[in-house]
Design a protein that fits this description.
The complex is a heterodimer of chains A (424) and B (161). By secondary structure, chain A is α/β, with parallel strands linked by helices. Chain A contains 15 helices and 18 strands. The radius of gyration of chain A is 21 Å and the shape is globular. In chain B, β5 and β6 form a beta hairpin. The chains are: A alpha/beta (424), B alpha/beta (161).
Chain lengths: 424, 161
């Protein structure tokens, strides 16, 4: 019996020839990503236990992103503490404001994600990096602290669900719609404790960035990780960003899966997740008359350059609706600069949107676009839980960047296909 | 271990609800405890006494990885959470903090708020002293019990080194 890519990577990182689902292992961790919210408590814990010395500073990448630019005094103290700590520990990879970005967009963009590696971060959307053929998973602050102190971490080898995705995306339909459809089908705990491996014609056709959107939301189905076998696109993406070597792992044809799910996405429509779960999805054509106060384009899910291009294509020479406001948050500094160079930021601002500095910001109800009671937001982010973007009495609807752009113009949840068809 | 049950039987109670992100600029238990569960139950802190337990449905603690959720509950006096199932990262965070999280299928249908419960970790049994019922649960894995006994993952690492 063969092994899955996840089993192979984990085996290689605990000095074994193979591992099986259910086994408890200690795995070497290649990349430890640290952001502001979950790293500060880890630093305190380590100091308290006399474990202050980071075992492998060269494996650590630090990037304050949640509450930067600092939202208040407490956040400023948190970021100051991380900055001091990184300096004290000789951690060279520190992304200061001005080079910074949302961690899951920045890490691969800056060449820190390589196929075949193991990656952890105190953040649930760490599943993103599986899009490049890495084992990447979100953990808590104690896990983070333990990994900083020892370079390794305990895991139960997960079972894997294989998603075989067939068909081609229609106009106005994107990888965000695909992952929302998957979550609709299996539910928010449909992959609990498991790895979601994505394969098939659809995945082959997607860009590396679009694949990240799919793996990013594996956690929204309860998944431990999302993963895609690396191909030439992956190799090209990684080699353009790093000279460090990497090993390619792929699932064997006779690998064992706990479940195989076949989905034909040929007829998929744009999908919108209604409050208050990412699984509460409807095709946009059945959304009804949902007026929106705010449209939010950004986040680790959909704040990359391709997302901004799609939204700008729809918004060019259009205006944001009178009773709606729009916030665009390019996910990283490089994305911001690229969007500016391509004239995308002008398109957004001419349409009446505002453009902010990179930040996790309002996605998690932090700052830069919080919702009041009774307000509704259409958002390209990943969660629409109660109070996620502000007041517990507000509502978040999730969609693709195209759906967000179309809805901003219409002032209500709208089908992006209509706007794309108007183009010559 | 004995305590009174507080039932939140809805499935998928997420960490944003247990401790909203607007309080993540703090990380001390006492500070977080003041806001534990406030978006679900504004009365939570008035109801809970030290030693009490939360009973929940499927997938308790799903969503964000914030360990602040465990700290907020513990700071509020909660000593264990018993749920049908847990979100994965929350479950890890419980083990790593030496905080008792017990998976017990069907528990949310059997227990009511105010029931007095006794947990026997060794034998995998919950004793409902109010209803005079017993519920078995899958024993916590030995590795996790060692971490819990050490008082958390970092203590466990310190002891081993």
């Amino acid at each position: 019996m063969g092994s899955t890519i996840t089993e192979k990577i984990l085996a290689a990182h605990c000095g074994r020839d193979s591992v099986k689902p259910g086994e408890l292992i200690n795995a070497e961790i290649d990349v430890i990503m640290c952001h502001d919210v979950t790293t500060t408590p880890a630093i305190d814990m380590l100091a308290e236990k006399g474990l202050s010395k980071v075992a492998y500073p060269e494996r650590v990448v630090v990037m304050p992103d949640h509450f930067v630019p600092n939202k208040d005094i407490k956040s400023a103290e948190m970021v100051a503490k991380i900055r001091r700590w990184a300096k004290d520990q000789d951690i060279g990879k520190f992304y200061e404001l001005g080079r910074h970005g949302v961690c899951h967009a920045l890490l691969p963009e800056q060449g820190h994600v390589r196929p075949g590696t193991t990656i952890i971060c105190g953040d649930s959307h760490t599943s993103t990096h599986g899009a490049l053929g890495a084992f990447s998973t979100g953990v808590g602050s104690t896990d983070l602290a333990a990994t900083l102190a020892t370079g390794e971490l305990w895991f139960k080898v997960p079972e894997t669900i294989l998603f075989r995705l067939k068909g081609k995306l229609g106009k106005g339909v994107y990888s965000k719609d695909v992952i929302l459809e998957i979550i609709r089908r299996i539910g928010v705990d449909g992959a609990l404790y498991k790895t979601m491996e994505f394969t098939g014609e659809l995945i082959d056709d997607l860009s590396v960035e679009a694949r990240m959107t799919i793996c990013n939301m594996a956690i929204e189905a309860g998944g431990k990780s999302g993963i895609i076998n690396p191909d030439q696109k992956t190799i090209d993406y990684v080699k353009a960003r790093t000279n460090e070597s990497f090993e390619l792992f792929s699932s064997d044809p006779d690998a064992e899966y706990c479940q195989v799910i076949d989905i034909d996405i040929s007829d998929l429509e744009p999908i919108v997740a209604f409050p208050h779960l990412p699984s509460n999805c409807k095709p946009v054509s059945q959304a009804g008359n949902i007026l929106v106060d705010q449209a939010y384009l950004g986040s680790c899910t959909n704040g990359r350059i391709e997302d901004l291009r799609v939204a700008a294509e729809i918004m060019k020479d259009k205006k944001v609706a009178k009773n709606t406001r729009m916030i665009v948050v390019p996910a990283t500094t490089d994305i911001w600069k690229q969007a500016n160079k391509e004239g995308l930021l002008d398109i957004f601002m001419d349409a009446g949107a505002t453009v902010s500095a990179p930040t996790c910001g309002a996605c998690l109800g932090g700052h830069m676009g919080i919702l009041a009671a009774g307000e509704r937001c259409i958002s390209s982010t990943n969660r629409n839980f109660v109070g996620r973007m502000g007041s517990p009495k507000s509502e978040v609807y999730l969609g693709s960047p195209a759906t967000v752009a179309a809805s901003a113009i219409a002032g209500k949840i709208a089908d992006p296909r209509k706007y794309l068809q108007e183009k010559p | 271990m004995t305590g009174n049950a507080h039932c939140y039987k809805r499935d998928h109670i997420n960490t944003d609800e247990i401790i909203p992100a607007r309080y993540l600029n703090m990380d001390k238990e006492a500070d977080l405890a003041k806001h534990a569960m406030e978006d679900i139950d504004v009365d939570f802190l008035n109801k809970v006494k030290t030693g009490d337990m939360i009973i929940a449905g499927e997938d308790f603690g799903c969503g964000s990885s914030r360990e602040h959720a465990v700290w907020a509950l513990r700071g509020a006096g909660i000593r264990a959470v018993i749920a049908d199932t847990f979100g994965r990262i929350f479950y890890r965070n419980c083990i790593n903090n030496g905080f008792i999280a017990i998976e017990c299928k069907g528990i949310s249908d059997k227990v009511d708020s105010g029931d007095k419960l006794e947990i026997d970790i060794e034998n995998g049994v919950i004793n409902n002293m109010t209803k005079k019922e017993q519920y078995e649960f899958l024993a916590i894995p030995e590795f996790a019990r060692e971490i819990i006994a050490a008082g958390g993952l970092l203590n466990y690492i310190v002891r081993k080194s």
